[in-house]
Amino acid sequence: MTLGMIWTIILRFAIQDISVEEMSAKEGLLLWCQRKTAPYKNVNVQNFHTSFKDGLAFCALIHRHRPELIDYDSLRKANDMDNLNLAFEVADKHLDIPKMLDAEA
After folding, report:
1. Could you say which DSSP state residue 50 is in?
2. Which long-range contacts (CB under 8 A, 24 or more apart) does 25-30 make?
3. At residue 95, does pLDDT exceed 70?
4. What pTM does this model have?
C-alpha cells in the first residue's frame, strides 16, 4: 500500500528527473523519493517500510510539490500517527489521491 500511495503522488507530480534505465521500477521510485525528500529534516528514505513509518516522508513529498498544504516545520518525528493522518487527509482532500492506508498504532 505504501508503494501505491507514493506511486499515485508521483503520477500526480510527474517523474521527469528519473532517467536511469538499468533500474527496476521499484528502485527508480525509491530514488525519486530519496531525491525529493533529501532536503527535509528527519527524513532519510532508505526503503518503503521503515522510512515511511513516522509519516514525515509522506508529508515531505507533499510539501515538496505543494508547500502551502503542509507546515512541514511544525511536524515532529514522535507524532507518527498525526503525521500519517495529516499526509493521508491532505492527499485525499487536496490532491485527489484516495486514502489507501490507515495509520495504525
Report:
1. G
2. 29/3
3. yes
4. 0.79
